[in-house]
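New to this. Please check this record:
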Amino acid sequence: MDFKLYLITDRTLTPDIAKSVESALKGGCRAIQLREKDMNTKKLLELAQRLRELTLKYGARLFINDRLDIAISIDADGIHLGQKSMPLKAVKKLSDKLLIGVSTHSLKEALGAENEGADFITLGPVYETLSKLAYGKPIGVRTFKYIRSKVKIPVLAIGGIKLHNLKEVMKAGADGVSVISGLLSSANIKTKTEEYMRLLYDKN
């Protein structure tokens, strides 16, 4: 996998999501997931097209959450599936070009996604975070490390990943991290992205 920082959009955290995404891209982020579940199809397509322009400009990958139709129509790099999304095998039948990420929250879900052919998974929530309250209690670093050891495909840690705990999840075996508020709630998204990137690629 050619990225370690996976920014997931949430337009409720910022007045201009496209501008915020561009700031993250300027800071070095090279993978964006468009995840705006309550946006109507027309507006979602318009935003997807705008983010496709930006990701191409900065040499980054664009993933679309759930919406295979939109991912195909804008020539996105991939799609991200939840546990209640279209089955992964069905996606592969309709498009063999897209990279496929899957959200997982347990060993069973992680192994299931791997067995069905996912290219990578997100695993969590590792820490407590408002965006993941619906998925129950955080799994914690020890459980993350254990599940990571059982999975062969790349695993991105998700859920409450901030600068102060990023190294902890990377030492637990994460191939990278998924971030929402950690970047989008920042006063200076470009600078904060640079800080994440520095820690992610620091070998010490």
Observations:
- The CA atoms of residues 3 and 44 lie 24 Å apart.
